[in-house]
Amino acid sequence: MTYSVKEIYYTLQGEGAQTGRAAVFLRFAGCNLWSGLERDRAAATCQFCDTDFVGVDGPGGGKFADAAALASAARAAWVGEGKPYIVCTGGEPLLQLDAPAIAALHEAGFEIGIETNGTLMPPPGIDWICVSPKAGSQQVLKRGSELKLVYPQAGAEPERFTDQDFTHFFLQPMDNTERTANTQAAIAYCMANPRWRLSLQTHKLLGIP
Questions:
Q1: Is 25 marked active-site?
Q2: Which of the residues 49, 88, 130, 190 is marked catalytic?
Q3: If you average pLDDT over residues 69-89, what whole number do you get?
Q4: Could you identify which of 16, 22, 105, 133 might form a hypothetical disulfide with 110, taking C-beta atoms 3.0 to 4.6 angstroms apart as the criterion?
Q5: In CATH, what number is assigned to the domain containing residue 36?
């Protein structure tokens, strides 16, 4: 298949359990919960998304004819030492990330992580699965490495997810006009419910991609 990619870049993971880890970010174009166009935001299932995943015009982006070409572009972006780590994200990466892509990325030496909204089941072979459920969507992926819940969301309260099979549970304050209040609310919830840990978008605080 042809893979449509918004951008590929090297940075530090800014959120969740892998915060601070060097990684190649492979951002696939497209999502099943919002078109990515501002004119459609009010009618979208996810109305708070802060990511540009429309088109293939970002740094390192483009259309890749096959899994080998995709993996080659991702490997070229890794400039660190040690085991290469890649975060497949979007949009919704599982609209495109398939078994051939996973095999090619592993062949290129990558440990593979994904950030998904949990509405699609992943192919086997992914090393780290982060699910970020969105209110109003049908979550089918209920196990993985970490659940990272943007907070607060009416209809996606933390109590709804505590019986799911994840190693880590994170609350991440929603970054909108109420960010300060959302952060304080997330802190209070984590202190009252220690199973949950606070995730901050440290890349935004540091001014890195």
A1: yes
A2: 49
A3: 97
A4: 105
A5: 3.20.20.70
